[in-house]
Design goal:
heterodimer; A: about 300 residues; alpha/beta; Rossmann fold; Alpha-Beta Plaits; 6-stranded mixed beta sheet; 4-stranded antiparallel beta sheet; about 30% strand; B: about 375 residues; abc type-2 transporter like fold; 14 helices; ATP hydrolysis activity (chain A)
């Protein structure tokens, strides 16, 4: 086990940020923490990286106790906070050299680990970090978090505010790092990134709702979801909510996702109901279940 | 050690990269030293004075001529009645109104005693006090001149006995206030600069989020703190050097004592100020908060340092508070060494107090600096 969290709780004054969280991450696993803003993801990260002391519970990271062996943990984990936090007035090369030095190592020593990523930003190595694009900043931050060859890498919302192309690149980099045996705990508010993880934990309001592989989470969802589209999308949600057997209704891209209480829904009956409400061009079809659907139902 | 050196190197890089800040750090203190030293004077000059002479005698003219001849006074106008004098004071057209009553000379000759009315604008109490002393001194002189004349002509046998005082001003024999003020102002500048810079420095890393990144590294507390504060220690000594050169070249401040002693004392004093800055940094979340607290203490330190108002004339409780004021000890020290030529033995009490303060505040600051919450 690379990370083993047991019943961790942390509250600030009277506000509880995370409650009774437990999960385990295997060595070399890419583990995703999926949840909306304010779910407690960052608090959990800060606790596991020894920046916060939990009120209750404990955790073992890379074989070290997060309360007792703080020093060992700091030597063996890499942390990339959600907010870009390198020195904006130092250049790429200076930032990297600085973090290598305070970890007691050199860039050359672990160059093989960051090579893939560093070559992409090397042409700009004399540019100040503050003048880099969002994607390049992320790459630099990842390099700095990796420079001491950590056993476990903590990435707090690494792709928030990054363009789709850079996001895709970033996840490919994570996969390559995983192949090098680094355990990665990554958090994201984007459901589409969840499927790229080996296993995910759905977290909301400081509690973990479900932990499984993305495939299992989707396939274990027994309800059927329908894509519905009509000419009057505005009123559609309102009208569907008044349908006697409705279970849940929410907008999903160009469709509305509708789930019924009955597993076998009489589609004809639903169509007639909508027509009575003056909807035309009605399209009703079965949708493929996504992580987001499961999350909305929790 | 390598880590500390690297942090120091990084700090210097950041300081020198911020060109506008660098200019402020060096140019502002120099400007302040040049301007403040010339402006912060206790001398009261150009006192405007008006007379209401209802006597118009030889004696009254002798009195007026004495004021006219004195370079500290400028006689504005001869007034005719008391009401006009009051109006004049009210408008702020004069600082002092002296009323010489009718029969002034006659009273002097017959009764050997006469009265003068002196009205002084006391909006600024300190200035009014000094003006009062000046006026009294001149009146006293006139009094003696007249007395001698009167006695000489009438009763020759009376021998005047009077005590004359001839002051000799030690350590600043021309009473040049700049000699006295410049070292004190230099102390203020060195203190302000290092306190503000160190108080804002670590809090800035908090604001930017870089401190969080540093805190997850295995870096030791002492390495980080020394690395962060050492550049400001150097900067403080550089400012002191620049200030000493200006004091010598521009203001010709005497430097009787050992300059080495000044540097030695300042090195320890800077540790105290930097520790205090770090302590402020630890207990604030933004640069604004840090700046506000630093200013709060700075104002108290300056006003209670004995630089502008003598500590001896403060109430007892205030004097006790000044015992906690580091600037007080530094101002005292630098004046003793530069003007009096005091040696290590004489300034040892100041040195010991500063050393104790430095150890206490740094201990407190390091202890309250937490990598984990």
């Amino acid at each position: 086990m690379s990370i083993s969290v047991q019943n961790i709780s942390k509250s600030f004054k009277n506000v509880s940020a995370i409650q009774n969280i437990s999960f385990e991450v295997k060595s070399g696993e890419l583990f995703g923490l999926i949840g909306p803003d304010g779910a407690g993801k960052t608090t959990l990260f800060r606790t596991l990286t020894t920046l916060l002391i939990p009120n209750e519970g404990n955790a073992i990271v890379a074989g070290h106790d997060i309360i007792k062996n703080v020093k060992e943990i700091r030597n063996s984990v890499g942390y990339m906070p959600g907010k870009f936090s390198l020195y904006q007035d130092l250049t790429i090369a200076e930032n990297l050299a600085f973090f290598a030095t305070i970890f007691g190592t050199t860039i050359e020593e672990n160059y093989d680990l960051i090579e893939d990523i560093y070559v992409q930003i090397e042409p700009f190595k004399n540019r100040r970090a503050g003048a880099l694009s969002g994607g390049m900043k992320q790459k630099l931050a990842l390099c700095c978090a990796l420079i001491h060859k950590p056993e476990v890498l903590f990435l707090d919302e690494p792709t928030t505010g990054v363009d789709p192309v850079s996001r895709k690149e970033f996840w490919e980099m994570l996969k390559r790092l995983k192949q090098k045996g680094i355990t990665i705990l990554v958090s994201t508010p984007y459901m589409d990134e969840a499927v790229l993880c080996d296993r995910i934990a759905l977290i909301q309001k400081g509690e973990i709702l479900k932990i499984d592989t993305p495939e299992n989470i989707v396939s274990s969802y027994e309800k059927t979801i329908y894509d519905i589209k009509t000419n009057k999308m505005h009123q559609l949600i309102e009208h569907l909510k008044k349908f006697p057997t409705q279970y849940s209704v929410f907008a999903f891209g160009e469709y509305v996702h509708y789930i019924d209480n009955n597993i076998e829904l009489d589609l004809q009956k639903l169509k007639i109901y909508l027509e009575e409400k003056q909807h035309t061009n009605i399209i009703i079809q079965k949708a493929t279940t996504t992580i987001e659907d499961v999350f909305m139902d929790l | 050690m390598r880590t500390i050196l690297f942090i120091i190197q990084k700090e210097f890089k950041q300081i020198f990269r911020d060109k506008s800040m660098l200019r402020l750090i060096f140019i502002l203190p120099i400007l302040q030293l040049l301007i403040l030293s010339n402006a912060a004077t206790f001398d009261v000059k150009n006192i405007r004075i008006s007379f209401i002479d209802s006597d118009n005698s030889i004696s009254s003219r002798v009195l007026k001529d004495k004021f006219n001849a004195n370079s500290y006074f400028s006689v504005t106008k001869e007034l005719t009645n008391p009401k006009e004098g009051l109006d004049f004071l009210q408008k702020g057209s004069t600082d002092i109104v002296i009323e010489i009553p009718n029969q002034f000379e006659k009273m002097l000759q017959n009764e050997k005693k006469a009265e003068l009315q002196i009205q002084i604008n006391a909006i600024d109490a300190a200035t009014a006090g000094v003006q009062n002393v000046y006026v009294s001194q001149i009146v006293q002189q006139v009094n003696q001149d007249i007395a001698v004349k009167i006695y000489n002509t009438t009763e020759n046998q009376i021998i005047l006995s009077r005590i004359e005082t001839i002051p000799s001003f030690w350590y600043n024999n021309t009473l040049n206030y700049k000699t006295f003020m410049v070292p004190g102002i230099l102390v203020l500048l060195v203190t302000m600069l290092t306190l503000f810079l160190s108080a804002m420095n670590i809090v800035r890393e908090k604001e930017l989020g870089t401190l969080e990144q540093i805190n997850v590294t295995p870096i030791k507390k002492y390495q980080f703190i020394i690395g962060k504060l050492f550049p400001f220690w150097v900067l403080g000594l550089i400012i002191l050097s620049v200030g000493l050169v200006i004091s010598k070249v521009v203001f010709n401040v005497p430097m009787l004592g050992s300059i080495l002693l000044v540097y030695g004392f300042t090195s320890i004093y800077l540790l105290l100020i930097l520790g205090f800055g770090l302590y402020i940094s630890n207990h604030t979340e933004t640069q604004q908060q840090a700046m506000f607290i630093a200013w709060f203490f700075m104002v108290i330190f300056i006003l209670m340092s004995g630089l502008f108002t003598p500590i001896e004339s403060m109430p007892k409780w205030a004097q006790n508070i000044t015992l906690l004021n580091p600037i007080r000890y530094f101002v005292e020290f630098i004046r003793m060494v530069l003007l009096k030529g005091a040696g290590l033995k004489e300034v040892l009490p100041n040195l010991v107090v500063i050393l104790i303060f430095a150890i206490l505040i740094n201990g407190l600051a390091v202890w309250s600096y937490k990598k984990t919450n």
